[in-house]
Amino acid sequence: MTVCEPATTGTVVPTGELDLRRALTGLDGLLVMFMAMMQRHDVDEVINVLKREVESVTGCQLVHVTFQRDREWITLPPGEPTKPAEPSPSTGERVFVQDNGDSWTSTTAVAVLNGAPGQLVLRSSARPDPEQLFVIERLGDLLGTALADAQVHERDRRRALELDAANNEMACTVAALQHREGVLEEFARLATTGTELDVATSLSRLTGSTVVLRDRFGHETTRITVAGRYQPVLERTSLEAVIGGRPELGTIHLEVPPDKQPEDALFALQYAGVALGLLRAHAAGINELENRLSRDLLDDLLEGLPADVAVDRAAAQGHDLGVPHDLIVSAWSSEEGHRGHDRDVDHLRRAMAHQRLPCLVVRNQGLIVALAHRGVDMGRLFDDLSRAYGDTNGVVAKGEPINSPQQIPRAYEQAQRALRARQQSRNPYGFIAYADLGVDRLLAFEGNADEVERLVNDWLGDLLSYDYGHGTELVLTLAAYLDHGGKYADTATTLSIHRNTLRYRLSRIAEISGHDLTDVETRLNLHLAARAWRLRRASVGEPPRDAVRWGTPKP
Fold first, then answer.
1. Residues with Cβ < 8 Å from 216, sequence gap 6 or more?
2. Dist CA 369 CA 390 (whole Å)
3. How many domains, in total, are found in the chain?
4. Same domain, 137 and 15
5. Domain of 276: which CATH number?
6. Which of these, 45, 82, 42, lies nearest to 65 by C-alpha position?
7. pLDDT score recorded for residue 421
8. Radius of gyration for the alpha carbons in the chain, expressed in angstroms and rounded
9. Is residue 216 part of a domain?
10. CB contact at 8 A, 317 and 359
11. Same domain flag for 385 and 460
12. How far is Cα 468 from Cα 472, in angstroms, rounded to an integer?
C-alpha cells in the first residue's frame, strides 16, 4: 500500500497532554524554518528548505508532499503525481500515524484556502511522541501557507514575464510600424524629388542589402553595395520585383544578408519599386517628348532650315549648333527578326554616348542619322554598333565636316553617297567617310547624273542588254575583273568559278561589247562605267547583296 493511504492498523494519536517546553522548542525551530520558506517565493525552493530542515525540527524525514499546483496534483520530491487518499486528515485536528514494521509514517494535511488539502508524509524510526505530532500538525498548516505564497509569487512572475513579452512585442510592432512609415515617407519623397540612384541608395541603406537595377533588356544599370559587408551567396536571400509592376520599366533586385528580416526588406522593395516606376515612367515620358522634338528638329535640319531658326530651336533642346558637327548615317543588314525601329535608333544613340559627344539621332529614308559635335571616331563607332547588333554586317558613313546649319543637307547627301559606294564595293561592310571616296565622289554626284548615265550606256549598254535578255551577269563579272586589276586568280576566287570559266566569260564580254580588254584606256573607261553603274543602281540603305553580286554569278 502507498504511504498516502491510511493503514487499517493505523491509530489516531490525540495531542492531549503535551510537554509544553519541548513543544515550544519544536515550534521555535518550526518558526525559523517557516520564515526561511516564506523568503523563497518559489515552490521548489520551499520544498528544498523542507527537505533540509524537517528532520531537525520534527525528528522525521520527508517522504513526500502532495499538493495542487496550477490545478494539477503533483508530488515532491518528484514521484508519480497522485491525489491525496480519502479520507485525509483535517487541518489542526489530527495526524495519522502508521506502523510499517521497521519505521513509522506520519501523515498530516497541507492547509489550503479553497479546495482539497494536500498531504505531508514523514518517516521516523520510532513512533512520534505527542510533542512531535503537535509540531508535525503545525508544520502542515505553515507548509500550506508557504506553498500558497510561493505559488502566488510564481504566478506574479509569470504574469510579469508575459507582460514584459507583450510589451516587447508591442514595442517591436511599434518600431516596425515606425520603420515602415519612414520607408513610405522616404520613397514618397524620392518619387517626386529624387533620382534612380537616390532610390537605390536609400533602399540599400534601409535594408542593409545590395541593390541592383536592370533595364527591360536585363542590362544592369545601377548597383549599390553595402560597404564592409560580405556574405557567401548561399547565405543571402534574393528578392526581385518588377519596377512599377511594368516589365518594360525593368526590375529591381535585392541580396538580403541573413541578419536582416526578409519581410521588412520585401516591404521596402515593393515601395522602392513603386517610386522607381514613377521615376522611370516620368523619365520615359520626358525622353519620348525630347526624342520627338529631336526627330522633328533633325528632320527639318536635313531638309534645310534658316541658320537663326535652326540655332534657336536646337538651343531650346539643349543642343549647340554653333560648333562644327559631323553627320553620320548607319545601315545594318541584320536579320529582320532582330531589328526594330526604336532599337536601331537606340543602338546608334548608345554608341554615340560612348564617345561623350552631344548628338541628335533620327531615322530618315531608311537610314539611322546622327548629327554630332565634330570628332566622331568612326572605327570605334562601327565596333560599338557591331557589338550591339551582334555582327559586322553594316556600314557607317560620314559626310564632310559641317561648319554651319546650312551645310547639313549637303553633308547628308555626301554621307548617303559614301554609304552607297561602300555597299557596292568589294568589301561592303565597315565605315567610310565621304572624303575617302576618290573618283566615286564624281560618279555619285547628282549634278553629273546625265553625263554619268551616258558613260554607262556608251561603255556597258550592249552588255546590260545582253544580261537582261539572257539572264546572265556579264557586267558583274567584268566589274569584278577590273576591281582586281585584271588578275585571273583573284577574280575567279571572288566569283567562286574556275579560271577557264572566267576566260570564257571575258571572251564573250569582248565579243558582245566590241571592246579590247587589253587596252589600258578602254579598261579605265569600262571600270569607271562599271563603278558608276553599281553606285546608280543601289538604293540608299539597301543591304548589299554580295552573295548574288560576287558569289554565284550565272554563266
1. 247, 248, 249, 250
2. 20
3. 4
4. yes
5. 3.30.450.30
6. 82
7. 79
8. 52
9. yes
10. no
11. no
12. 7
